[in-house]
TrEMBL record, chain A:
Protein name: ABC transporter permease
Protein's UniProt keywords contain Cell membrane: yes
Source species: Halomonas flagellata
Membrane topology value: Multi-pass membrane protein
Transmembrane regions: 100-121, 133-157, 169-191, 270-291
Primary location recorded for the protein, binned into one broad class: membrane
InterPro entries per UniProt: MetI-like (IPR000515), MetI-like_sf (IPR035906)
From TrEMBL, chain B:
The keyword Transmembrane is assigned to this record: yes
PANTHER family: D,D-DIPEPTIDE TRANSPORT SYSTEM PERMEASE PROTEIN DDPC-RELATED (PTHR43386:SF1), OLIGOPEPTIDE TRANSPORT SYSTEM PERMEASE PROTEIN APPC (PTHR43386)
Start and end residues of each ABC transmembrane type-1 domain: 96-285
Organism per entry: Halomonas flagellata
Membrane topology reported for the UniProt record: Multi-pass membrane protein
Name of the protein in its database record: ABC transporter permease
Amino acid sequence: MKRMIGQRAAASFLALLGLVVLVFFLSRLTGDPAALYLPIDASQEMLENFREIHGLNDPLLVQFGNYVTDLLRLDFGESIRKARPAIDVVLEAFVWTLQLALITMALVTVTAVVLGSLAAFRVGGLFDRLTSLISLVGASAPDFWIAIVAIVLFSVQLGWLPTSGTGSVWHWVLPVAVLFVRPFGLILQVVRGSMISALTSAYVKTARAKGVRNRPIIFVHTLRNAMLPVITVIGDQAAAMLNGAVIVETIFGFPGVGKLMIDSILQRDFNVILASIVVTALAIFIMNLLIDMAYAVLDPRIRY
Amino acid sequence: MIVSAPVPDTNHRPAQRLFTVLRMLWADKFAFCAALFLLVIFACALLGPAALSEAASQVNLRGRNAPPFSLENGWQFLLGGDALGRPLLARIIVAAQNTIMVAAGAVACSMVIGTTLGLIAGYAGRRVGQVIMRLADIIMSFPSLLLAVIVLYILAPSVGNLIIVLAITRIPIYLRTTRAEVLEIRERMFVQAARVMGASTPRIVFRHILPVIVPTLMTIATLDFAFVMLAESSLSFLGIGIQPPEITWGLMVSQGRSYLTTAWWLAFWPGLAIILTTLSLNLLSNWLRTALDPVQRWRLELGGKKT
Amino acid sequence: MKPNHLLIGALLASASFGPAIAQENKNVTVVLAEETDLVEPCMATRSNIGRVVLQNISETLTELDVRDGGGGIKPRLAESWEQVDDNTWRFHLRRGVTFSDGSSFDAEDVKHSFARAMSDQISCEIARYYSGMDITPAIVDEHTIDFTAEPAQPIMPLLMSLLTIVPSETPVEFTREPIGTGPYTLAEWNPGQNIRLERRDDYWGDTPEVSGATYLFRQDPAVRAAMVETDEADIAPSVSAIEADDPELDHSYPNSETLYLRLDHAMAPLDDRRVRLAINHAIDREAFVGSLLPEGTELATAIVPPTTQGWNAELTPPAYDPEKARALLEEAAAEGVPVDREITLVGRTGNYPNVTEVMETLHFMLSDVGFNVDLQMYEVAEFENLYSKPYPENRNPQLVAAMHDNARGDAVFSMYFKYHSEGRQSGIADARVDELIAQATAATGEERAKLWSELFGYLHDDVVADALLFHMVGFARVNERLDWEPTIATNSQLQLADIAFE
């Protein structure tokens, strides 16, 4: 296991480097921050001066060299827009995103696994049809649509919940609920499908043939085997969430990293984009590592 | 006991096979309706723009937000008019083409590429597998909306570019699922047996492993179809998706969202189109799973009498 | 509250949310569309910063009076001023003014503020208003300062309404703790979440009623409107016309933005006056008002709003006349003007509420009279590439739909950039226009107004420089417990001292 972690860390470092290179050059292809930062009727001298201050006049490769050198000293540079260290801006936002992702994914996993397995026990039954339908309809509606309808309904009409923002536990209800819907539908489907296959597979039949009538035992054994594809999907969904929930954050004014990234690319605030990519990528690499370890635990046949 | 890999039944003549398929479809009424609905949508996508794009772009500011269920202005206004007084029904039909093209294109591309890479990663040597998985990690840790925004800033937001962007962001999900399944399946007895009997690698991968994975992939693909349609609409929400005068359902929902409290039909109908299409695909895929699975097929062959 | 303690804290906290509105609550909550990412006084001319900082934290020597008829300059930190000679203006500073750090305000502070704003170490936005001129401040005594400009600046008092004053000790780098002479100080700032201002006790002027203000940021207009409705906020300075459906809460105001189509005179067929006229007659301007754009939107005949000095009231917007437009096009075509050449109509996503719908309608109207138009929507960076010089080499003829904001009361902040042959966003090169701009810029009083007026008329009727569309209207949603009306300046500043309670 230790060797595996070591190898993965090395591989992850390479991937991270690849990501930084990719983002550095791709984002700089999208345009010049000077034109955006300064007013539209700024003079040529102001533009030149701005580029000089922020080191945008150097050749691209020199800029990249400087960036990497600084990065190795864990210096992520300044945010052009906010005039403070980019990493501070990103970490502040990431703490919010992390909380949001953890809470939502925990709720999603528990409910989806429970409901999905129950649905698989009686394929085509009423419960099966109902959960499938509800989860699907929910997962098929655009999230910004759900979010705005939820605000109109629960905040404006009923007055139960605050519209947006942060501050109390109630502020979390709507964002989490909106975020919940899509991964829930997806994971529920995968759990159900995977459980159906597992329930009809050889070892369950063997167990039944041997006279194991105890449903809980069958359930636990089946679930354990059915979890492999489920974990993959949970991992993907969690990764997507660690990258920030752009739409939800935008609508609910939630200060997470997703909105920060989109705002920063809009403003061409390159250092913030890069810092947020590095932070979220690290988080995702760590999570992937945990998932691979989960595989190994669940299925001893898998060796790394 | 050895579970045999599904082997397509080649004894029947084509007409007979079609009949069997139809009968099995009829056995599941939900799937049957879904198939019909999808046929209609595909017909709209194929013929809609040619027939209706003129009517769908006729602006009339003095007759905006016409309410639905009124035939006064002609059948195209059955679902009401939009903020520019254009007929919603006609627009939904015309938009079907771009929507389906983007979604189907992105799903097909990502599924083919992702599955292929996943098979390689799962079955080939460890080193190749590791390289592929790290590439997947890079894409996965690249926030998909951010990637889309950056690429669409560099390229123009056309249908083709949207397909590319959305496909790239969806590859890892197929890749990882395929690999995970391959890792498990290749240890199963029937694969081991085939290997011992000297079957070639392509034969093992395509005849023995792939068919077992396909049902899972189909489930993901149908859900992904919805995901891609929604991602496309999220891009519209952020203002960087398909740009007018081109239309997609996602763009229509996004444009109509500000009228939710005053003219709900603007966002509701295209939203419903997305939901129904996704739902149909999913019902069909559930049916397909059952039909493709030799252990489960009897449920349909017995004419829908569920036990 | 720190994020990591949030959950625990929130669980312990009561279930209440939003500002608990007690009888004696003199706090207001303002919800803005765009985050205030800096609180630097020298950036206060940027609207997302100005709404928080300008005249609340940092004050200026003079102030443009927008309440009473408009156009006048009011004293603020300067009590009076006079012109010493053609190039020099003398400002007499208010006595007994202190900064929020306790230090007193004098001429040295003004000099430093100007030097800091113009410094090339930092990119202050205010500097753009002083570009193309050479201004030297000179301290006369502790409470008197001279500004000498080359070339002469007849509107020096107006220019001084843009310079925010900071203490002379302020370092030349962006500050996160702004010190000003204004009635409020920055009490708390959680980037991305909120900013809080609190009232000072030792302000030189009248004590404002509002004791503190919290600023929140929500991008979606529907959410902003909902927040005022649910008492989570008191003022939403910009909600879209669609949400503004409650006359009790929603107040419309001219937001000083003018929407127009910049025509590229260097490219055929837009180099032909008949073609430009045809564009103007093809657009049914009135159909937009009350439908896609709110009631109260005015048809434009100049790029500056009617509150500007020298406004030409004699100009009338071109009538909607598709027949005439078609006839003009035919006439031009008969003389060999390539009228069927593809023209790109360029719009900017998210520019104003309903921008996409407006652009689609313009596209439809122009196509309807026979133009071969291709609609392209761009996000802001790409848009500015097309809007500002140097224009791309291999471009189509372009109609760029842009908004221009000038609430400063004088056309000088617009005309050079938009119409001078050297102007960065100019689509024309006309010797007479250049000359008029130069003359008006140097003139004062009546003469200045007359020259601007002449220029507006010449551009609109003779050159047909562009397709001027609308003076836009914004909506503010205001909680009923407040007594406050938005003005044309609300787009760029929001003075808490103007707010009273019912």
